[in-house]
Specification:
The longest helix has 21 residues. The protein has one domain. It contains three helices and four strands, in the order αβαββαβ. The chain is α+β, with helices and mostly antiparallel strands. A hairpin with a 2-residue loop joins β2 and β3.
Length: 98
């Protein structure tokens, strides 16, 4: 993060971690599921495939990779339904202009 801030002409003043409150976990999980599903859908419809750092055209789309992601999505969704949750801290930076 310091490099990213520096490239924008900023420097960090504080960095504070905030744990996710228990009452917000289900929303946090749902947000990640929506992002993951959207990623897999976009991947399935994409004709560009990045391999070895180079984009290659793939006329069939990325269906096998997307299928793998969608299967993982369904497994994660089932685990969330059984009470499993993502545990993460939100990290908030306050920065100033250099």
């Amino acid at each position: 993060m310091p490099r990213l801030l520096s490239s924008a002409g900023l420097s960090a003043v504080t960095a504070t971690p905030y744990p996710i409150r228990d009452e917000l976990r289900s929303y946090w999980n749902a947000q990640h599921l929506m992002i993951y599903e959207e990623f897999a859908t976009q991947l399935a419809n994409s004709t560009e495939h990045i391999k070895g750092g180079r984009e290659q055209q793939n006329q069939e789309g990325n269906h096998s990779e997307a299928t793998d992601h969608l299967e993982n999505f369904k497994a994660v969704q089932a685990e969330f339904g059984q009470g499993v949750s993502i545990d993460a801290n939100l990290l908030v930076f306050v920065a100033k202009k250099d």
